């Protein structure tokens, strides 16, 4: 089950630099482990922002929350969650058939 | 080069139903052709909305604009564009090396 | 899996009154069928608004979208979706044990 | 009488960790006592947020304010209150009769 | 039980003038009847706006919704509802006693 | 001359508790003196918020500003001011006559 | 007593051109009459907008509302009202004295 | 050339009181000098706010920026700038002629 | 004197297509004439939007307003104006000297 | 490839003045080097703001992000990025030909 998640990071300017550095290092390892397990499907930097756009593929809302709550930088983030569904225009829906029956949801 | 694009569709309630239906059908074909060519990499429905989140992979801002401007439903859409860059935590950056040198941009 | 959904309804003032009336009647039947099946767990009117706050219990984002997209009044609604998870303070988590181990997520 | 209440929590990053921990523990006990008494009917975590959506069932605006003002984390919260009323499509309104007379408020 | 309600009115410019005029006349009678019954305690025009700020004194959220939903101009209004409680600085709380015990909620 | 004023209070969490307490006590006395003089006609707590909605009856904008600027908690408040006028539906306008001549401003 | 008023005008594109033209002409005469009487002290066009910023000098909130409500274009306007007071840095406050006693309100 | 400028002041609560006081005193002198020179034409307090609305009459955008950037309180201000133009309804445009030729821009 | 202007265009979907086409053609000619005269220095399409970002170089606010007001599409536009000034980091300020004296305004 | 970037700077008032000064000096040098290389095509101060509007001409989203992320003041900035495309009314498109074929995108 897919979710688009946007994370905007704002580390307080008066945070101890060592705490900041170690939190950021832990964040990277945490993210990469979930990418390897397949639950964190995509992560992109939004150009010009200390933000990322990520796609998660998890079994439930519970699991999504567990992952996000556990982010080492969570307390410095503003997070936006959008649950996703299949789009009727997605060519992945097309097998041998033409998919023409779902035109009413295009856009 | 990647871009995240959100399209919110609002078809006027007094639009001629035949015009609406044929525009939606054209939209679907237009999207699928670009998916097949590889420029429209992902399209997801945002659950509960007449909106999609899409990822485009195009050569330039010019080409992105050309594609979006040409959308049959463009005049009924509110479009948001976010240029994307590689995220330093992306495991795709990891080859045989450890990637540890870029921890400073995690999050 | 639970979702909070807010639906704000704005029926165009120049919509044919008969179309409006029959759409509203269909909406009611549609909602009640889903309440009976258990997927539409709660529906409340937000006082002073043509809006409702609803709680859905469905198996996936796909199913949630299917239900909302099918609402007879969907085209006249602004819909907000919030995926929900268990709250660590929820007394439903307390069996014979004391639940004290999860205090860190309270609030 | 029902109210939907959304609480967004933002604990200052420079708050003494012991103060934070004890406040969070007190918050949990406070919430659970009110859940047991029946006034705090539901509490859900909003996935990906340090926020909850709660349903209160209290006798008056006065009582609602007293409860919210007394929350140990109140000073770190942004609170949104929505008074609720019965929705005409709610199947709880249906006894042996068909409830068809209130279709005009559906949606 | 008190509620502050703000009503912003926007009558569509293409509404039949006779329908508009009769709806406005009905609105006035409706409001005045509720003022006489004591439920609509105050109504003020917000200077420079087609808006009013009103104070309602009703027995429940249900009753408040019933009144607002029944407003002849309801479909042309944007309505904001704020449930009210007694303020600890209100001198109405002062009888023979000094009221000093509630200073912590002033402001 | 009437004004509706909303005051949202946000006391910095790191303010000296004694300073906070004494400021709050002074605020209460200041408010009650103006209530007794008749200039601060109403003060209500907005349920669930550290906010109040107040009605002032003063001779001028100058006087209103002088009162608000002098609030002991002013520096911690976000203040919203709305000048008020008589509403044409107000039954206070009705003497022996019917008031029917002002229907055009109802709502 | 002074007020700053911003008026944003949005004439519906499908309004009868003759109605629009005569309303605009009436608006101009209405404004000029009030400028001559001294109540409408300043009117400036906000560059690039169909908007004006005006300063009114009237005896009360009631009179301000009466003027604004009577604007021929009122129904097509979004109006913002800000009551004004004397600024402590205003040199008009300086007579033979130095005015230094009010420095605490500068800014 | 005229500009409307709104300045909202927010002095940090933990700023050294002596620094605050001397900055405010300097601000007042700075403003009064520019009022005397004719560049700062009007300054009004917005009632109930630590804000002013000012009208500047300067030769260029460069000069406006130089003045605002030099404000002693600039670093604590949120500033909004609106360039102004002559309004076609302004009676200052009326000499012996009737000015009727510009009715199309009224409002 | 420079101004950044953003124009968002929203042509009503029910506008006569011939009127729309001829207005758009006139708009293009109007823009190009001003580009040739040097007052409309830059015009860029904002990718994915029916919007442009333009830089104007005109002698005054009056002239800027005259140009914008005269845009054939003005009535269908939302316009945002930002007056510009020289930036202290601009290398155009550097002649033979080093420009180091203005470092305090960088950013 | 062009991008419009707006940077709003907010240096924390309690930042060490020497750190602030050296960061600002580094920012200036960084900007000027990129202006000389041709990637930072324009930089303007937005009048009355600690903000700039800049035009970048870079080869990709990646390069844009690299530049912005490397800004010495980045951590104190709110950045807005808008990818730009050629506007069909741009006279730079006109060679010997008339450019008339693209009128449909004007505005």
UniProtKB/TrEMBL annotation, chains A, B, C, D, E, F, G, H, I, J:
One Pfam annotation, family name?
MIase
Top-rank taxon of the source lineage equals Bacteria
Give all residue intervals belonging to the Muconolactone isomerase domain.
1-90
The EC number on file is 5.3.3.4
Coiled-coil regions, chain positions: none
Q: In which pathway does it act?
A: Aromatic compound metabolism; beta-ketoadipate pathway; 5-oxo-4,5-dihydro-2-furylacetate from catechol: step 3/3
Which UniProt keyword terms apply here? Aromatic hydrocarbons catabolism, Isomerase
- Reaction catalysed by this chain? (S)-muconolactone = (4,5-dihydro-5-oxofuran-2-yl)-acetate
EC supergroup of this enzyme: isomerase
**Would I find Disulfide bond among this entry's keywords?**
no
Q: Which SUPFAM superfamilies match?
A: Dimeric alpha+beta barrel (SSF54909)
Q: Which InterPro entries match?
A: Dimeric_a/b-barrel (IPR011008), MLI_dom (IPR026029), Muconolactone_d_Isoase (IPR003464)
Provide the family line.
Belongs to the muconolactone Delta-isomerase family.
Q: What is this protein's name? A: Muconolactone Delta-isomerase
The organism is Arsenicicoccus piscis
């Amino acid at each position: 089950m897919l979710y688009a998640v946007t994370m905007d990071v704002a580390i307080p300017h008066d945070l101890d630099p060592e705490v900041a550095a170690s939190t950021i290092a832990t964040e990277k390892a945490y993210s990469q482990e979930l990418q390897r397990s397949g639950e964190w499907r995509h992560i992109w930097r939004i150009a010009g922002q200390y933000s990322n756009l990520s796609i998660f593929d998890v079994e439930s809302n519970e699991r999504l929350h567990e992952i996000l709550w556990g982010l080492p930088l969570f307390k410095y983030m503003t997070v936006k969650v959008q649950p996703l569904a299949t789009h009727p225009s997605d060519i992945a829906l097309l097998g041998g058939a033409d998919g023409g029956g779902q035109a009413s949801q295009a856009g």
